[in-house]
UniProtKB/TrEMBL annotation, chain A:
PANTHER family: ARCHAEAL-TYPE GLUTAMATE SYNTHASE [NADPH]
Domain Glutamate synthase: 81-336, 362-405
Gene3D superfamilies: Aldolase class I
Protein name according to UniProt: Glutamate synthase
Family: Belongs to the glutamate synthase family.
GO biological process entries: glutamate biosynthetic process
GO molecular function: glutamate synthase activity
This protein's UniProt keywords: Oxidoreductase
Automatic annotation (TrEMBL), chain B:
One Pfam family per UniProt: GXGXG
Boundaries of every Glutamate synthase alpha subunit C-terminal domain copy: 40-185
PANTHER family in alphabetical order: TUNGSTEN FORMYLMETHANOFURAN DEHYDROGENASE, SUBUNIT C (FWDC) (PTHR39673), TUNGSTEN-CONTAINING FORMYLMETHANOFURAN DEHYDROGENASE 2 SUBUNIT C (PTHR39673:SF5)
Species, as recorded: Marinobacter manganoxydans MnI7-9
GO MF annotation: an example: oxidoreductase activity
UniProt xrefs under InterPro entries: Glu_synth_asu_C (IPR002489), Glu_synth_asu_C_sf (IPR036485), Glu_synth_lsu_3 (IPR012061)
Name recorded for this polypeptide: Glutamate synthase subunit alpha domain protein
Length: 442, 227
């Protein structure tokens, strides 16, 4: 309800039953089916905006912005792998499937990542030739469905990411609705065309961390111990999950907070399961530190990262790198205002579109429609992504230099304060202007 | 023939030697002694090799096998021949759960019994089990054939896609969307070929066929109770 209406009419909108809530009740009553959508959590959550950096002053020396270097490179997976991943920037592209995304979009992600020396990641649907061809460093996801999984592609990968869950739906499987199962997607997933493709939430051939340790050994054996093995989990009981992942033999742990995106998940899942990214990082770092494995097993964090400040804050809290998904799609052109009229024709609007599961994306990204897909030029879109990644890097460097750090990984929690009690408690940094970290000291 | 004794050599050394054949094949036959249930034996093979494992194997034996013929002269642990692409894996004894999970091709023969979830999410493999299979076998099976010469446990073929299931014995219960189907001449012929390839002497006419009712292929609110 706008303030104007409120003032002139005295009408009062319910905070509990607001118009969005009422619309969902009506939709549920009309269809009898829960709402499935893409994107990520839309509710307001404690996030990186609730943290601030303490720039250098008398007690800290800053680095000269345009003269003194601030290293951004990072090596991932040197615990056991013969060929760890070396990235020029600590910002990677998260796993998104061909099927959920068009082949052009996948190619653009590979092009953009490669242009700035970072990695991209496959998804629940196997590895496409376009993606492998355009990705200098490609992480191959090993998911419960095992769609398209084969040893040849496994050996082509620069690392393997065993996916136990994702931030948008920890504990949930996947769903690719029939309208996106084209001939090529069906062939890659060994399914009939046009049917709803369900991805299991549990791996089919192992249960629990002890089995996972053996599974990781198998993947290492098949690839002759060449490439790193990541374990990705949705952020929930992060402290315990990280400990178990390290015990199971992970080279790298990926934590995806609840702001992480999805191609198609129940709305109730997206908004009500998991914990914010901000709350997950300190848990993960604590687990690694207690095991003496911080910086030895690298930590990648994803879920709602939008700018260089978010990147720098993640790293100050102890991450070795971050991964972006939704932001990368926006850089490609997702939800672009130029398509607003077409978004409105399908009941949405630019900036609001989240029905990735329907395959009608006017921007040509979350679709398998050949005509829509053509709208995305993978070369141009890839370059946009590269530009965006450069900006994130420059912004993060700017903040690190201001804190006197010549390496992004030298940022530390001591460089941060929190604006709210909630974010101070979650991030385990003091409330601004105080020495108070809720739950730790007074 | 080359021999490996896994009390003297590690699984890593064995697998590396087997993988080294994929480039230039110097040796085609391998006998592996004293496996003592170790995990990940002979996984990731990619050559026309013949590997005999003279004893029990642990988890993921012959995982992601391509082209090779692997025979376990004993029992096999969880996930034997998982994600196999081609070739043949034969288990002389029993196999634990998730045998042939997600396998895309080739032939998996289990001369004893198979545990739970045999053929889970199978994607084109042919699996022939001389004995019984456990519960939830062929769960979400996508393609290929599962032949059970004994009995099948609860919820056979739950959420099935396009796998052909043939069972000679008793089926404790069928899973969601799995139904008994007519055994037509082409199915008798298909089953006869599978049994012949597996080297199992059974009469195809004594089997029943099960497959997907295809009612869960697209989400319908009317089927909510099945989800």
């Amino acid at each position: 309800m706008s303030n104007e209406l409120n003032e002139h009419t005295g009408l009062r909108e319910s905070a509990t039953f607001d118009r969005t809530t009422m619309a969902e009740i009506r939709r549920a009553a009309e269809t009898g089916i829960y709402d499935i959508r893409g994107f990520g959590a839309k509710r307001k959550l404690p996030h990186f905006d609730d943290l601030l950096f303490l720039g250098a002053s008398m007690s800290r020396y800053p680095l000269e912005g345009y003269r003194e270097k601030c290293n951004t490179s990072v090596t991932l997976g040197d615990r056991f792998a013969k060929k760890p991943i070396k990235l020029d920037i600590p910002i990677t592209i998260a796993g998104m499937s061909f099927g959920a995304l068009s082949a052009n979009a996948k190619e653009a992600l590979g092009r953009g990542a490669s242009e700035v020396g970072t990695s991209t990641t496959t998804g629940d649907g196997g590895m496409t030739a376009e993606e492998r061809g355009q990705s200098k460093k490609l992480i191959y996801q090993y998911l419960p469905s095992r769609y398209g999984m084969n040893p040849d592609d496994l050996r082509k990968a620069d690392a393997i990411e065993v996916v136990l869950g994702q931030g948008a739906k920890p504990g949930g499987g996947g769903m690719l609705l029939g309208q996106k199962i084209s001939d090529r997607v069906a062939q890659m997933r060994t399914l009939p065309k046009g049917i709803d493709q369900r991805s299991a939430c549990r791996h089919p051939d192992w249960t629990g961390p002890d089995d996972l340790a053996i599974k990781i050994q198998e993947l290492r054996e098949i690839t002759d111990w060449q490439v790193p093995i990541y374990i990705k989990v949705g952020a929930t009981r992060t402290y315990y999950d990280v400990k178990l992942a390290v015990k199971a033999g992970a080279d790298v742990v990926v934590i995806d907070g609840m702001q992480g995106g999805t191609a198609a998940t129940q709305e109730v899942f997206i908004e009500h399961v998991g914990i914010p990214t901000l709350a997950a990082i300190p848990q993960a770092v604590q687990a690694l530190q207690e095991m003496g494995m911080h910086r030895k097993v690298q930590l990648i964090v994803s879920g709602g990262i939008r700018n260089g400040a978010d990147v720098a804050k993640c790293m100050a809290l102890g991450a070795d790198a971050v991964a972006i998904g939704t932001a990368a799609l926006i850089a490609l052109g997702c939800n672009h205002p130029r398509y607003d009229e077409e978004f409105r024709k399908i009941g949405s609007a630019a900036g609001f579109y989240d029905d990735y599961q329907e395959g009608r994306d006017p921007a040509g990204i979350s679709t398998q429609d050949p005509e829509l897909s053509k709208r995305l030029d993978p070369v141009e879109a890839g370059h946009r992504l590269a530009n965006y990644l450069r900006v994130l890097t420059l912004e993060a460097q700017t903040l690190a230099r201001a804190c006197g750090k010549n390496d992004l990984r030298n940022l530390e929690p001591e460089d941060l304060v929190a604006l709210t009690v909630e974010s101070a408690a979650m991030a385990r940094v003091p409330l601004a202007g105080t020495c108070w970290i809720p739950g730790q000291s007074f | 023939m080359k021999t490996f004794d896994l009390t003297q050599n590690t699984v890593r050394e064995l697998n590396q030697a087997l993988h080294d054949q994929s480039g230039e094949c110097m040796e085609r036959e391998f006998d592996v002694f004293s496996p003592h249930g170790q995990h990940n034996i002979a996984c990731g093979l990619d050559q026309n090799l013949s590997v005999n494992i003279m004893g029990h194997a642990g988890y993921f034996c012959a995982g992601m096998n391509k082209k090779a013929t692997v025979t376990v002269h004993g029992n096999a642990g969880q996930g034997v021949a998982e994600n196999m692409m081609s070739g043949m894996v034969r288990i002389k004894g029993d196999a634990s759960q998730a045998a042939g999970a997600t396998a895309h091709g080739g032939l998996l023969v289990i001369e004893g019994n198979a545990g739970a979830r045999c053929g889970i999410s199978m994607k084109g493999v042919d699996i022939v089990v001389k004995g019984n299979v456990g519960h939830m076998s062929c769960f979400m099976g996508q393609a290929g054939n599962l032949v059970v010469c004994g009995d099948a446990g609860e919820a056979l073929g739950d959420s099935l896609y396009e796998v052909h299931i043939y069972v000679k014995g008793h089926v404790k219960s069928l899973g969601a969307d799995c139904i008994e189907k007519e055994m037509r001449p082409e199915h008798i012929e298909e089953l006869g070929n599978l049994l012949s390839r597996a080297g199992i002497d059974e009469d195809p006419a004594r089997f029943k066929r099960y497959g997907s009712a295809r009612q869960l292929y697209n989400f319908k609110v009317d089927n909510a109770s099945a989800y």
